[in-house]
Amino acid sequence: MADGTADPRTIHLKDYTPFPWTIDGVDLTFALAPRGTRVTSRLRFRPNPEARPGPFFLHGEDLRLIEARIDGQPVSPRIALEGLTCDVPDGPFTWESVVEIDPEANTRLEGLYLSNGMYCTQCEAEGFRRITFYPDRPDVMAVFTTRIESDLPVLLSNGNPGERSEGVAIWHDPWPKPAYLFALVAGDLLAHRDRFTTMTGREVDLAVWVRPGDEGKCAWAMESLKASMRWDEETYGREYDLDVFNIVAVDDFNMGAMENKGLNIFNSSAVLASPETATDANYERIEAIVAHEYFHNWTGNRITCRDWFQLSLKEGLTVFRDAQFTGDLRGRGVKRIHDAAALRAGQFREDGGPLAHPVRPESFVEINNFYTMTVYEKGAEVIGMLKRLVGDEGYRRALDLYFARHDGQAATVEDWLQVFEDATGRDLSQFKLWYSQAGTPRLRVEERWEEGRYTLDLSQTVPPTPGQPTKAPMVIPVAVGLLNPNGDEVVPTTVLELTGERQSFAFDLPTRPIPSILRDFSAPVLLDRDAPEEEAAFLLAHDTDEFNRWEAAQTLARRAIRARLDGRNIDPAWAPALRAVLRDDTLSPAYRATILARPSQEETAQALHGAGLTPDPLAIFRAHEEVAEHLAHALADLLPGLHDQGQVPGPYSPDPDSVGRRSLGNAALMLLSRTDVGARARAQFAGAADMTQSVAALSALLLVDAGEAELQAFHDRWSGDRLVMDKWFALQASLARPEEAVATAERLTRHPAFVWTNPNRFRSVLGAFAGNLAGFHDPSGAGYRLLADWLLRLDGANPQFAARMSGAFSTWRRYDADRQALAEAELRRIQSAPGLSRDLSEMVARMLG
Ligand code: PHE
Ligand code: ZN
């Protein structure tokens, strides 16, 4: 089953049919108890005039049905594995059921569960069916009223608060929503409060809820929330629509956060921050995730998805919106660089291997396996291309039309593209291939110069992917600028639209220009071009496009890595070319930090594989080390000054400027520790007043295999702080040297604080280890075995998360025959384990397929 489609449980997009009923209202009552919570539901059904009649089926899993009634009369439904069926009247009727569930036994973190004594829910994608019997599909939208009975002090649900009395709270959400947006929280929590006045003058009460002890770590999430609310009004004209907006932090959470209507639930790692415990990167992540979840209120909640195949309709768009937000707040160029680098490392890897799937998949076995970088990040890239093709004005008109036309609906990718066609008159039938064809297109560029005429010959190929052997040409917006040899821009950024397999674009120019191609990373493609040797250095010195200037630095770094892999010397002109940019004070420190960054080892492995070679993880590790050593020596005089600039005076602040300075300073420190045997890093660690400086110093030490004492000191100081301890675990697992990595990861799994049922902690050891290229791909196969052992254990408790973590194996076919045999044996061992979950078995089948 190459793409999992042979599995009898496969669900297909083409099989969509609407639910035969609509729901006029949902009343839920929760009598909370750890081992036996009673959920009473009252659903008012009426035949759906837009659907063909069909059997009455309600989803339900792991529920104990206590009683069921229709219009007040007891009924005996037939319980099936994934739900129930029942004979029902022809017209409207009221369904009532009482079920019992066991939150304490819920280790899947899906449905209603307990995390450190706090009740919380996670319903996306199909978790509501673990709470009560219900048509658990996103196209069934209803108005919910929720009554919570519990002695716990804080009782929250979606919408606006209603009556509150001793042991009872009632919430009413006036906006129709699918069940996946339902949420409930109950616990002993404290609020960090604020208010927001909307564009029409309505007052909204805001709160960030946390466990006692964490109340001092909420201010940043709150600031981020207010900034997001304002930005969505100013940029998209979107106003918030309830009297309250609540955010809750929970320690046990599979993902980053969840956009439940009016009650966002967050992984505590995406909320809690204080200067002493969180890094700049943590602050930026919190800001971005708070924005992302808030933006879902319109793109996801007010307009939701008809079915889960349309997931990118909300996720791609919301990622695109949060990227715009971050770009506006923190600088567009640097944000674009970070996103493109992440896309290449993660999404290109997915798109080039056995897990490749379209932005809108056509089938799945387990929807949880499709919350991927392709659906999220490539989906956002597709929207970026659309915006580039129709222009800013066209984009805004299309979005206004989208909100006006589809508010309150469960929409599709077709609806989305239709608003662009209607608002701009553009035919998007070919563009739509971006939603259905998987694989990263390869864009080949050749240039010709004949007296006075410069021609770019563009051609494209889209590689075969599982289930898609042949592809049609896509619409690729290729932003280009042309420079003359003294560095002046003779043709400013122009978007060439490649729609055929090959096309030529000519420019009349008096002298032969130097091209800057795929500016701003205008399409998620691999650029294939035999550029003249000196072009990258020229663009690094002169390009006006921030992205392509960075790309030129990457090209030079790739060449240096490649030289060491082939046993050649590094071009002595490389470091001087970087030096000129690093010393240019007109460039922001944040930007200069990106110039100093090299491609990841994963990217090198990917590139070698793409070139038809077999990557050797150990050789890649060494080559990257040698390149870093080379830079450390060649820039030795410059680095101390850059590092000094990173010491930002005054109290900690995560503003873009301070963050940028620290990122440049710490990028310098990573190199400096290679020449001063950690002296500066040790001093920075000892004097660090905030976590950014502390973690950077510790990393710089671990990179050169020093820092034992600091590691211990860090442990002793922070053993009571979960999120900081996650860093302590992750740093060691990801930075351990190849020959020690497996033993290090194994040792960490035996540490008393390694609570493997907590996803953050599991990720901090095994996720970080799997990202340690040479460590995970240890030639003995011990890395594969370690991860497989833990996946099997995890699968029994939390299948969704086990499946997510298994993706580390997806590149196994890239490597040599010995490694392939070892990895394959582990995958087969997982596959044949008794009682394997649907989640993990689908992943393994696809990876072996
Ligand atoms: N919808 C969430 C987001 O993108 C992600 C999520 C999916 C969270 C599934 C939990 C479960 O913001
Ligand atoms: Zn999202």
TrEMBL record:
GO biological process: proteolysis
GO molecular function: alanyl aminopeptidase activity; metallopeptidase activity; zinc ion binding
Domain Peptidase M1 membrane alanine aminopeptidase: 220-431
Sequence ranges assigned to domain Aminopeptidase N-like N-terminal in this UniProt record: 106-181
Lineage: superkingdom: Bacteria
Coiled-coil segments on the chain, per record: none
Enzyme class, UniProt record, top EC level: hydrolase
Keyword Transcription regulation: no
Keyword hit for Zinc: yes
Residue stretches making up the Peptidase M1 alanyl aminopeptidase Ig-like fold domain: 439-529
Required cofactor(s): Zn(2+)
Swiss-Prot/TrEMBL keywords: Aminopeptidase, Hydrolase, Metal-binding, Metalloprotease, Protease, Zinc
Family, per entry: Belongs to the peptidase M1 family.
The protein, known as: Aminopeptidase N
